Backbone:
């Protein structure tokens, strides 16, 4: 039954989004996957169960989401590159595990295929949950693919960022793209950039597991080799000892948040489409960027100067890019598939420079290009 | 100055510990260090895991890599470590609430899978750290801070639970039997598969004062002793006579395939 396929399936495929995410993970070096059944993320687990043994990795179906997310933490500290996949309700359960991974700076990739509450229809309702689901102070990296190709590409990037910044990274998918089949091009393995965590070369007595300058990332140490590191969620000092001292606590979380925020230019990416001369700029993320692009083409044909700022990273917020768009255009349309959530971020940044209008849809399906075009027409001068 | 050579197994500057005077969890820390010393296994070659609670603090003091601070998820952490690094010895320290209430499902699944870890459950019959609330292991009618009129629920027998779930080494002793505890921990560490040691323990601050009306460690140890019977003694007692008793001994020691995740390909089929 098994095919002994290589780790990187170089070539052109017509592939399901959830499968593309798996292939991205494998290309990035993932060798541990744990997950619990949930629609619409099941195909990730199923493909992982098939593929992991082919590449010498581990597949675990946990007894629940908690088992899955904490198994990731254990496996990651033991040296594996780890991933789980879930969907909205399952992400609820994983929030505490993400909190632990934040506090002890454990690399892991979490794919969340957003679904409508209690159903599997399309939505972007959890864009705030990705950011704020875990308790305590934190910054998270959340990537928002819009196609099967981007599910592959961004999953690789998620692993690279998780390893580089010793942090959980979330790939925010949606029913729309995860359950869609389209063209996927997988490059040769030697053309894929792989970043691995920095392991310490210090001797145990000179090593401090949580020591780095503000904005820096501490090195990691292997388990069971005398480094004797305590990975506790409790407030800890640079040596990992549990300590409640307000100043130590403050510095710990300043460093954990600043390692993301000070590197925002490395982490955040956006794409722009016809924004140079645009009077109206649509800001969208995930699958919603697709009808936006079509609607812009339609508007352009009629002489409407519209453009798109696509947010490939939703957290941390691409503030610079949103601000530049707001200074360029007189009107901003904040497009999303929910009751209007990320719009608050866009209004915060763009509000002083342009008129921001919310274009939302919460019907369990994606905006049509016609609906977006109508929204553009409404604000055309 | 002469220091106890067993202090080598503790992290430098980690003492004094935070356990209350007379706490049984501190005794279990001692028993574990002695067991590893007798086996000549350096604790720093192992990985320790504690969740949340008093018992969960045991690995915090040990000179080893350790994970700590999430309630009930000790076994998922251990699962991730063992499937990645089967060569590492993983020892879990959990209280009864951590193991049997919030982490109860993980307990039965890990026992069923025969995950190759050692789990030491310090059963002090209540939630000690949070102030003495009722636990799934608290016997009926006992008073705790959340059962001020007596516990209306029956207690969990953790030995029966993990045995039924498939654990391959199961033992129960109490803190007032140090030699038996140390021997059981040694056997558990040497066992290949899911080894489970329950140690019935005195919680003076949380349990004793409410449940038996005394915070004295010796009175509480007597209270446990009066209710303790060995496996052979228990065989002569009726179910009614056994109610409210702690049956002590080694219950299970057998071999079964070790859980390794689905990381192996089936053999190639002939074309």
Residues:
């Amino acid at each position: 039954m098994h095919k002994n396929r290589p780790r990187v399936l170089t070539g052109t495929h017509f592939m399901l989004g959830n499968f593309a995410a798996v292939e991205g993970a494998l290309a990035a070096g993932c060798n541990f996957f744990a997950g619990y059944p949930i629609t619409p993320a099941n195909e990730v687990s199923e493909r992982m169960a098939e593929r992991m043994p082919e590449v010498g990795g581990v597949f675990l179906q946990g007894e629940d989401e908690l088992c899955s997310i904490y198994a990731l933490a254990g496996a990651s500290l033991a040296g594996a590159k780890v991933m789980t996949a879930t969907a909205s309700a399952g992400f609820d359960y994983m929030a505490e595990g993400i909190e632990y991974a934040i506090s002890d700076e454990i690399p892991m990739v979490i794919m969340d295929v957003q679904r409508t509450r209690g159903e599997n229809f399309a939505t972007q309702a959890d864009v705030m949950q990705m950011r704020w689901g875990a308790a305590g102070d934190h910054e998270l990296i959340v990537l928002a693919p819009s196609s099967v190709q981007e599910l592959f590409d961004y999953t690789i990037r998620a692993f690279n960022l998780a390893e580089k910044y010793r942090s959980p990274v979330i790939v925010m998918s949606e029913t729309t793209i995860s359950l869609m089949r389209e063209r996927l091009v997988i490059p040769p393995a030697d053309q894929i950039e792989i970043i691995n965590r920095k392991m310490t070369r210090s001797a145990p007595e000179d090593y401090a597991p949580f020591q780095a300058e503000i904005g820096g990332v501490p090195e990691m140490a292997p388990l069971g080799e005398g480094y004797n590191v305590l990975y506790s969620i409790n407030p800890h000092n640079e040596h990992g000892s549990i300590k409640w001292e307000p100043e130590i606590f403050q510095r710990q979380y300043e460093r954990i948040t600043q390692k993301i925020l000070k590197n925002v230019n490395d982490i955040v990416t956006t794409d722009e489409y016809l924004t140079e001369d645009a009077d109206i700029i649509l800001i969208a993320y995930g699958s919603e960027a697709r009808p936006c692009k079509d609607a812009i083409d339609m508007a352009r044909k009629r002489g409407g100067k519209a453009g798109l700022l696509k947010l490939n990273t939703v957290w941390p917020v691409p503030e610079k890019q949103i601000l530049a768009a707001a200074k360029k255009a007189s009107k901003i349309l904040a497009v999303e598939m929910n009751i209007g959530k990320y719009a608050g971020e866009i209004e915060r940044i763009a509000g002083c420079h342009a008129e921001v209008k919310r274009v939302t849809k919460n019907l369990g399906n994606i905006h049509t290009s016609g609906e977006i075009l109508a929204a553009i027409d409404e604000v055309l001068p | 100055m002469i220091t106890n050579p067993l202090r080598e197994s503790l992290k430098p500057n980690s003492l004094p510990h935070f356990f209350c005077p007379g706490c049984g969890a501190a005794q279990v820390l001692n028993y574990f260090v002695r067991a590893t010393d007798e086996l000549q296994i350096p604790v720093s070659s192992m990985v320790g895991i504690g969740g949340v609670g008093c018992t969960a603090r045991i690995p915090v003091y040990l000179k080893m890599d350790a994970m700590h601070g999430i309630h009930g998820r000790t076994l998922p952490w251990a699962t991730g470590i063992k499937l990645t690094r089967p060569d590492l010895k993983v020892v879990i320290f959990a209280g009864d609430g951590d193991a049997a209430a919030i982490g109860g499902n993980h307990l039965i699944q890990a026992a069923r899978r025969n995950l190759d870890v050692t789990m030491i459950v310090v059963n002090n019959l209540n939630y000690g750290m949070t102030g003495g609330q009722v636990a799934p292991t608290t016997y009926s009618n006992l008073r705790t801070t959340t059962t001020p009129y007596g516990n209306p629920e029956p207690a969990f027998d953790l030995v029966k639970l993990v045995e039924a779930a498939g654990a391959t080494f199961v033992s129960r002793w109490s803190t007032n039997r140090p030699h038996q505890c140390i021997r059981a921990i040694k056997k558990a560490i040497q066992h290949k598969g899911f080894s489970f040691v329950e140690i019935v323990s005195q919680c003076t601050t949380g349990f004793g004062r409410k449940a038996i009306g005394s915070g004295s460690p010796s009175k509480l140890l007597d209270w446990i002793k009066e209710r303790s019977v060995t496996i052979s003694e228990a065989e002569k007692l009726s179910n009614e006579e056994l109610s409210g008793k702690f049956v002590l001994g080694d219950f299970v020691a057998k071999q079964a395939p070790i859980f390794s995740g689905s990381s192996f390909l089936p053999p190639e089929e002939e074309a």
Notes: The longest strand of chain A covers residues 108-114. The radius of gyration of chain A is 21 Å.
